[in-house]
Amino acid sequence: MPRHAVVIASGGLDSTAAAYLLAAQGASVSLLSFDYGQRHRKELQCAAQIADLLGAAHEVVDLTAVGRLLGGSALTDAGLDVPDGHYTDETMRITVVPNRNAIMLEVAAAVAVATKADAVAFGAHAGDHFIYPDCRPDFFEKITAAIRAGNEGFLADGFQLVAPFLHVTKADIVETAAGLNVPFELTWSCYKGGEVHCGTCGTCTERREAFDLAGVADPTPYTAGVAK
């Protein structure tokens, strides 16, 4: 198990569950969030609250200048609507932020080198694979190799890139998180940037269905009402 993990923390359910899982396994965790100009910046507040509960250090990396260059995504362009529906719908392609996970993982790896952490963790899961190429196992293997090659001789002994949910579903994550007493009510999923989860965008739809499939009570208020 890692001794010290830098966790890419969006404030969402997946990354929070990953942080809680690593902490439960005895690792010291540091949370690293990214402000890339996303319309759902409320997630950064959630990440800070979760870090406080874990007693973990929390840093927010300012990537807003980079985000301004990454046009064409509904997450960073206020002129584009965040679509409703499932992640498997073709309309979800507009929520892709180019190379987002690669950028975040490389920054997190540099932080790990600087702090002598022996792991970097992120919460990608099997449900992300259809739309997001930087959440797939092939990407995970190649970015791990790139980080090792780019930091050869500087990584802590036994360094590893950790994606504990890469091959499981969102419902599996909810079930695991419930056993870890993850504060679901403090996590944020909605991409639309409101004060309350919309209940209809891809991330809200996936969140609602995951709780339902896992048989776990969902404490999240949604503006669209109760999930069917």
Tell me what you see in this structure.
There is one protein chain. By secondary structure, this protein is an alpha/beta fold. The protein has helices at 13-24, 42-54, 64-69, 100-115, 137-150, 170-179, 202-214; strands at 4-8, 28-35, 57-62, 119-121, 160-162. It has a five-stranded parallel β-sheet with strand order 3-2-1-4-5, with helices on both faces. Strand 2 (28-35), helix 2 and strand 3 (57-62) form a beta-alpha-beta unit. Helix 1 (13-24) packs across helix 6 and helix 6 (170-179) crosses helix 7.
Summarize the structure.
By secondary structure, this protein is α/β, with parallel strands linked by helices. The protein is built from seven helices and five strands, in the order βαβαβααβαβαα.
The helix content, as a percent range, equals 25-40%
Output the number of helix runs. Answer: 7
Q: Which series of helices and strands comes N to C?
A: EHEHEHHEHEHH
Overall, the morphology is globular
Compile the SSE list and pairings.
Blueprint: E1 4-8, H1 13-24, E2 28-35, H2 42-54, E3 57-62, H3 64-69, H4 100-115, E4 119-121, H5 137-150, E5 160-162, H6 170-179, H7 202-214
Parallel strand pairs: 1-2, 1-4, 2-3, 4-5
Can you give keywords for this protein?
7 helices; 11% strand; five-stranded parallel sheet; alpha/beta; 228 residues; globular
